[in-house]
Design brief:
5-stranded antiparallel sheet; single chain; alpha+beta; 5-stranded mixed sheet; 16 strands
Length: 302
């Protein structure tokens, strides 16, 4: 279901540096089922013409469409720290800069004034603090590409958080830590979850190989990775999670699979880390566009 009731469609805009993807989901109405359209395109000045073309083809008006921007590493970085629950806000911020900044290959490329923190109690006087940081040039570049379409942006965030499948495999995964693997072109993205909470996103070049030990991964699939689990000797340690029939019914090009899976999952997951507000008021959206470069970090500890 689409959470913003006024919208009739959601346009997913995947931003990956030098290329972009458009995936339009038109929600069911009357006796008609949902419609999905996919386009892959370079990130250039023609982006708004492509957006208009995909909306025209689906017979959807701009005003009836919301835009979700999906980011993958290295455009966005998510990791989790374990910090004493008695630490002050200033101490938490200092630890974030000290421990995360030092581990990044190119820390200067990230916007350290524009990040999100989520905090969950971990027990034993310790908090699980998950930090999501944007690439420094991501927001300006997205605004440049979308121009007036930026007013309809309702979500900017880590697309890998929607790889969460705990609700589907509740009995097997309840309370566990697990990873998901998403093949994407020659890259392999992984996302870690703990009790259904997204705690990490990363990218593996993996020498462009589809072989993970004894397993060979299909590009048109998402995988549950439980290789770190014990007492699972009779189960495959990397398991596909998408029934082939569901994907075949989508009738989309093979390149659309990663965005199709994430887009479909996002329609049913309400808990998400978002770099824009959910207010649909046009004046609010215009104000957000003008002040895009002045985002302040949101600290849920405050």
């Amino acid at each position: 279901m689409i959470h913003v009731q006024k919208s009739k469609a959601r346009l997913f805009f995947t931003y990956l540096k030098d290329k972009t993807e458009l995936f339009l989901y038109v929600k069911p109405h009357g006796t008609s089922g949902s419609e999905m359209t996919y386009r892959r395109a370079p990130g250039d000045a023609a982006m708004n013409l492509r957006i208009q073309a995909i909306l025209d083809q689906a017979k959807v008006l701009n005003a009836d469409t919301e835009i979700w921007i999906l980011l993958y590493p290295p455009e966005i970085y998510t990791t989790t720290m374990y910090i004493p629950s008695h630490a002050s806000n200033n101490e938490v911020r200092a630890l974030i800069h000290e421990q995360i900044f030092s581990t990044l290959s190119y820390p200067i490329k990230y916007d350290w004034e524009n990040y999100r923190i989520t905090v969950h109690e971990n027990g034993h006087n310790e908090n699980m603090v998950t930090v999501t940081i944007l690439g420094r040039d991501v927001l300006p570049r997205i605004q440049e590409l979308l121009e007036d379409n930026y007013d309809r942006v309702r979500f900017i965030g880590d697309g890998l958080q929607f790889l969460n499948i705990e609700s589907t495999f509740f009995q097997q995964l309840r309370g566990q830590t697990y990873k998901m693997i998403l093949p994407y072109d020659e890259m392999y993205y992984t996302a870690a979850f703990r009790s259904g909470l997204h705690v990490e996103s990363s990218v593996l070049t993996h020498a462009c190989s589809s072989s993970f030990g004894e397993y060979k991964l299909n590009q048109q699939q998402v995988y549950l990775d439980i290789r770190t689990k014990k007492k699972l000797m009779h189960q495959p340690k990397i398991q596909p999670v998408v029934p082939k029939l569901e994907w075949q019914k989508a009738h989309l090009t093979s390149a659309a699979f990663p965005t199709w899976f994430i887009a479909r999952n996002s329609l049913n997951q309400s808990q998400k880390v978002n770099f824009v507000g959910q207010n649909t008021d046009p004046d609010e959206a215009n104000g957000r566009k003008r002040s895009m470069k002045k985002f302040e970090a949101i600290h849920l500890l405050d």
